Each structure stands twice: as C-alpha cells, then as structure tokens.
Amino acid sequence: MNGTPSIAGSAGSAGSAVLTVVDAGTQPGSLASRLARWTARRVADQAAAEGLALEMHHVVLAEIAVDVGYGLLDCAPRAGAARAVAAVERADVLVAVSPVHNASYSALFKAFLDQVPRGTLAGVPTLMALAGGSQRHGLVLDHVMRPYLATLRALVVPTAIDAHRGDWLPHDMPSAALDARIGQGALELVALAGTASRLRRAATPA
To answer: Which residues contact 29 (CB under 8 A, 6 or more apart)?
Structure first.
C-alpha cells in the first residue's frame, strides 16, 4: 500500500477528506494500475480546484495478494491486507479500479473488499472504473460491478469509467475521450466529498 502526501486546499478551503484508491491491477504497468493512477490524479486536481484538501492513500492489491488470499482462509485479514483495510475504513471517498476477468471484476478485487467489515462503505461516495480488452467490457460496469458495490452500500457516482488499450496514447496518456470521462467522474466524486461524513452517519444503522 502506498501513501501519497496530502494535497492542500486553497484559501477559503471547502474542508478536507480522505481519498482511498483501491487498485486491483495485476502489475505496476497494467492497464488497471495506469487507470487508477490517472483517475487519482484527476480527482486530486478537481479537489484542489474546489479548495478541498485531500489525504490520499493508494492500495495496490498486487502487493498484498498473498495476505488477501490467506485472509480468505483465516477469516481475518493478515498484516498487509489489514493495513489496506484500515485505509479503506478511513476513506471519506473511494476510487475502485479493477481489470476485467471473465466478464466480471477480478477475484482479487472481490476477495479484498469481502474482508472489509460490513457497513464500512455505507454512504461513501465511490467512483468505479474497469480496465478491459475492448469496448464490450464496459457492460461489466453497470451490470456486475455497480450491483456489487451497491450490496456494500457504497454511494456510487453516476459516471463509471471503462478503459481499454485503444484509449491510451503513447507515454501512458489517456485519449481525450477517456480523460473527459475520468474528469466527469472526478467532478461528481468531489461534489459529494464535502458531505461524505454526514452521509455515512446517516446511512449507518444506530
């Protein structure tokens, strides 16, 4: 799990929030990891523009895959996974990114989130994204990933991001169309971030 320095808000700050990025990419240079990094950057830029100070945590599941696997057997997260779960528990807003595996999100993505305590994501504004091999994989977002996050009671923003190899330009730069989708998702996520704590309290049973 990698942490990044806080991103300070401007004068007249709209407040502060903790952003946790869950990156289920299988390796550092994967399409999913590239998408996670770029989405986090766009969310940070949007937050700064609106005077919202972000504390960002980047959870790289490939780095803790063994701990996640053992956690399924132990029914409790091991050290590396436990730290990642703690980062999710602290999140006021969440970015969730997975590669497409067999017309679904990856097994690693689900195995990790299944170890996050029930109710943790209730009312948490969430931006979801998938990296697939073709445009057809975009169907997985609304037909598979959104319902799963809904069972966790996450507050998923309307815009979902799907990206495939053709959406990326040289030097790991997104196409204009992909960058626009990410920017819209970031706008919606930051719009909810300022009220995230209140939303979570309202969504959590007494």
So the answer is: none
- Which of 102, 112, 131 lies closest to 29 in space, CA to CA? 131
Report the alpha-carbon distance of residue 206 to residue 178 in Å, rounded: 41
pLDDT tens digit sequence for 77-101: 788 999 999 999 999 999 999 999 9
pTM of the model: 0.86
State the average pLDDT over residues 90-118. Answer: 95
At 37, which amino acid appears? R
* The two three-digit tokens of residue 152, written as one number: 């966790």
d(CA 189, CA 159): 9
Across the range 1-6, mean pLDDT stands at 42
CA max distance for the chain: 51
- Give the torsion sign (CA, 8, 11, 17, 23): negative
* Residue 34 backbone zone (phi > 0: left; psi -120 to 50: alpha; other: beta): alpha
Per the CB < 8 A criterion, the answer to whether 161 and 131 are in contact is no
The Cα–Cα gap between 206 and 204 comes to 6
In a 3-state reduction of DSSP, which class is residue 127?
strand
Cα dist. 204→110, 171, 200 in Å?
22, 43, 6
Q: Is it the case that residue 183 has pLDDT exceeding 70?
A: yes
